[in-house]
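Deliverable D5.2: sample structural annotation.
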Amino acid sequence: MDLGNVDETSATDQKGRTALLVQSQAQFLAFLARHLGNCAEAEDLLQTAYLKALTTSATVRDDEKVIAWFYRVLRNVLVDTHRHQAATERLEARLPREAPGATVPDEALFHTVCQCVLDIAHTLKPAYRDILQRVEVEGASLKTVAEEYDITPNNASVRLHRARHALRTALIHMCGTCAEHGCLDCTCRRPASPSA
């Protein structure tokens, strides 16, 4: 048996199947658009289905069945999309309806949590202190902070990571095991603040 000849035949069959699928693109788009009601989404899903077809179309033995097989691929992609949308809707329904920042801070929790964080934050490098203030306290996005500091978002992400690490290290140094347990019911001895 000539393996080179088998490979050439297989490649030719694959090209023929691909050409047949591309020629039927308009009817595939119409099928998806009917089920989705959105042409742009139908085009995206068709591209996803084509990618799946390219990796598995070799399993189709009869060229006459390629179109029927591809409709099964399209139906599977539709089912996956509907499942994903349903899961997203369920998740969104569980999330609070309030805008971020609309919640009232819990004063009791604020006073229970270790206040050393505030003291230590003031000892950090200004760049670290500022990015922690903007992102962690004020809730600014990394993109916004990067634009404010005229740095790339990746640089802002690295700076935030280093700032968190510096704060964590300083907390563990000052508070020991209290910091390892979430700094609740803080009993560590803090140095007197300069204003005291």
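Annotation notes: The chain has two domains: 3-94, 107-180. DSSP finds ten helices and no strands in the chain.
The annotation will be released with the project's public dataset once the embargo ends.
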